[in-house]
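Q: Could you predict the 3D structure of SH3 domain-containing protein?
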Amino acid sequence: MIRLICFSIIALSMASCQQPASADGSKKPAALTPSPDEAALLAQQYAAFAKARENPMPTAQVMEKGKLYPVDEAPLDTAFFVYREQLRQALAQHDVLSLLDAVAQDVKIHYASENGVADFISRFGLDSNEPDTLEVWALLEGVLEQGGTFSPGQKSFSAPYYFSLWPESADAATEIAITGKGVRVRAQPSLNSEVVTTVSYPIVELLGFEKEEAIGGQVFPWLHIRLRDGKEGYVFGQFAGYPMGHRATFEQREGQWALTYLLTGS
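A: Sure. Here are the predicted structure tokens for SH3 domain-containing protein:
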């Protein structure tokens, strides 16, 4: 079961999952002290997931004008980090039941009024007899592998980082984030073309999409971009982060984390 009682090994206490009523009938927070067994299990899971990560993003963002450096704050909250990594395991295993267990009953997947688990199942074909063919596995993993940040108070987490941290000074409709270090900008949309320059994590203007190409087993279009200094060129689409692309928000509700938004567009 992916959903976990939400306590942190780092914290000494948190709000209780059960909110007892006061004399006037209102809810009031109560202390939650995890049992030693629960705390030990969560700590073991956290350590195992942390050890298995390859090239983890930093948990604090580097600030530089005109750039958007990657950041992943998930490891700062033990329970959320374990929840997210268990969800990623479910995606890798194409486990429909575990995916649905991680989703809020009122999950929002588009801006129309019809939403919720039933709509989530219908939209992503989770009632299919061939679950291995579904797009949701790669789609959601593509969101989760790109880090993200908590809201103030750590009651929600949004991913990817280039959505949650997109600066107000940049145009999300016409600009994108380059998500790699030392990314080659080429004169033409081809791996064999001359390298104009190399860039690391800039926000650039997207001028258009060119032909797709398979490089290193990855198939993406080439993107025509303009840098802040006016130079134009082409980058392989693997290194593009779209702030208005697919994005997810997770919220902590009654002591449990759940996927509450999986949206695209504006």
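Q: Anything worth pointing out?
A: The longest strand covers residues 203-215.
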